[in-house]
Amino acid sequence: MSDDPGRFLVAGPRVGLREFTPADAAEFTARARESRELHRPWLFPPCTAEAYVPYASALVEDPARAGFLVCERDADDGIAGFLNVNNIVRGAFRSGALGYGAFAHAAGRGLFTEALGLFLGYAFGTLDLHRLEANIQPGNTASRALVRRAGFRLEGFSPAMLFIDGSWRDHERWAITAPEDPAGPPA
């Protein structure tokens, strides 16, 4: 957990996770623009303030979604990327679909390995989820390596699963479940 609970929801030695805010629009969109080459053709985070507002608002306001900024723990806590959970289903399922993206200045530095590890503890604890699924295009080797390091297992292949960048894209389905609780699920 964070040594400064007001700053991050959860933190490790190099990164902390916090919620999106309207004040993050300028930095987030600048980082997204700088990272277009890294992100394409896999994802398309908002690159303008006009696109950021509804994106961030939905992550904060929609109970079926949750979004977190991955920030470097240094003097300015700069945004290194983001983690989102979409399609959250409660009840007996307690599951969600994980999405994420590192910004170019943070890619390849191990920050997201730390961030995803922190996030899994938060998702299975505070968010009370039992299962997270990451749907990854087969050619996205960096993303596949990240979830593999975090303990996700490959569960299957879905042809033409998601409409991205003007085409239906194939995806591999990777998933992880919460560590087994001998007491069983909460009542």
What does this structure look like?
It is built from five helices and eight strands; from the N terminus they run E-E-H-H-H-E-E-E-H-E-H-E-E. It is α+β, with helices and mostly antiparallel strands. It has one domain: Gcn5-related N-acetyltransferase (GNAT) (Aminopeptidase, 3-Layer(aba) Sandwich). Helix 4 packs across helix 5. The two termini are 26 Å apart. The model has no long low-confidence stretch (mean pLDDT 91).
Summarize this entry quickly:
The protein has helices spanning 25-34, 36-39, 49-61, 111-124, 141-150, and strands at 10-11, 15-19, 66-72, 79-89, 95-102, 131-136, 153-164, 167-177.
Beta-strand level of the residues, as a percent range? 25-35%
CATH topology: Aminopeptidase
N- and C-termini, Cα separation: 26 Å
Number of domains: 1
What's the name of the CATH homologous superfamily? Gcn5-related N-acetyltransferase (GNAT)
User: Looking across the biggest beta sheet, what order are the strands in?
Assistant: 1-2-3-4-5-6-8-7
Would you tell me the overall average pLDDT?
Answer: 91
The helix-and-strand class reads alpha+beta
Topology:
Layout: E1 10-11, E2 15-19, H1 25-34, H2 36-39, H3 49-61, E3 66-72, E4 79-89, E5 95-102, H4 111-124, E6 131-136, H5 141-150, E7 153-164, E8 167-177
Helix pairs in contact: 4-5
